[in-house]
Structure formats: structure tokens, C-alpha cells
Amino acid sequence: MIRALYTAASGMNAQQANIDNVAHNLANVNTAGFKKSRMEFEDLVYQQMKAPGTPTSQEGEAPVGLEAGLGTRVVASARNFSAGNLRSTSAPLDIAIEGQGFFQLTMPGGQTGYTRAGAFHVDGQGKIVTADGIPLSPAITIPANALTVSISKDGIVSATTPGADPQQLGTIELANFQNPAGLQAQGGNMFVATIASGDPVTSVPGSEGMGTLAQGFLEDSNVSVVEEMVNMILGQRAYEANSRVIRAADEMLQQVNNLSR
Question: What helix, strand, coil percent values describe the chain, rounded to 5?
């Protein structure tokens, strides 16, 4: 009965983490470029009272063993990098990636960050930056007198200035990874590379497996509200079931304590 208390408690802790993850996904349902995640669980160690194959007589042996599981725990939050829907914004510096790849950003301190959120702006020096002021890498500067900015599917950025032909300002390069799920989330729609993700492979859009760019569009979050609501209900019911196990074990212990009365 004491074992049941701790086993059920581990289940409640795991489901609490599951509900926390659902809440995070739902909170970012309107975050551009956000990628949902799910919790992965594993069972804990087993207390083995009898091993399979234990001799039962001179000629026989037990076909199965006797063991008691000790609960569960959360081992990973696996991020799903499937593409979200594209939403038209008509903003010239809103860029969506159609396919695989990440925008590269130069983070404070010189580290390279990676994002799928393509809501870019122009800072005081004319550089293309995120809403947090983090510049695109390689850096692209737009002239102060630019009338229009054009971004092609293969990442070529051009601008039109008064009395002049369109001039090419630079090329947006994308990065991809052998294991995108191994990227480490930094917040602010940003990821950084890890040993698990592998080294980045960079190329222009539309080559070497990279997606193409769509100017005037943003990639929406890939969170499904219906799916997350179902996950929330399942997590809530599992949490409730584990709490009832604790209540049942407590009542059984109470009966044992009353035996001496």
C-alpha cells in the first residue's frame, strides 16, 4: 500500500508536467513560427520478487516472473517541427519558409540563433532585424530612401530607390539540421544548436533540400487547439485516476490502523 502511494504520486507528477506542456502549447497558438511539443514518459524501475525461469521443481521452471512497477516519469519534451499554415500579411518584411530550414540570426555575444518566425523589421541602421532587434545573418541593410523591397523565392533581397534601377542588397541564407528536434529552445522564437541537433548545414533557399521563401506571409503556429484540448482532458483524467489510487491506498491503511481497536 505504501508502494501504491508513491507510484500514484509519480503518475500525478508526470501528468502535471503533461498539463503544463499543453498549457504552453495553447498559450502560443498565435505565435508565428511556434512548434508544439509533447511529453514523453517512461516507466520506473521494477522491484523483482521472482525472476522468470525460476525453478519450481526438479523438472519445471516458472514461465513468468513476479515484479512490481514503481511508477512513471517524464523523460523528454519532443518538439514537432511540422509546418504551420501560411498567413498572408502583405508586409514586405514578413517572410515564411515553405519547406525545411531556419532563418539565421546573430545573437548578442556572437552566437548564431535559428528561428522559423519570419516577422522582420528595419532598425535605425537599416538592418533587417527581429522584433527584439536581433539582426538577420548574414546581415542585410536596406537603404533609407528605398521605395520598395523585394524578396525572391531563392532569398535574393532587392530594393528600388528613386531614379535608379532595382539593386540587389544581399541573399538570405537558411540553415537545416540532421535532427531539428535536438535544438535547444531559448525563448523569443529562438533555437540554438546542440550536440544532439548536429552542425548546421547552410544554403540558399530552394537548394540542398532547403525550402523556398514567401514574401508577405507568416508561418502560423502548428498547434491544433482541438488536439491540445483532447490532450488536456486525457491528462486531467489520468491525474484524477492517480489521485483516486492515493485515496484508495490511504483508506486501506486506515483499515489496517483500525484493526487494533
Answer: 25, 35, 40
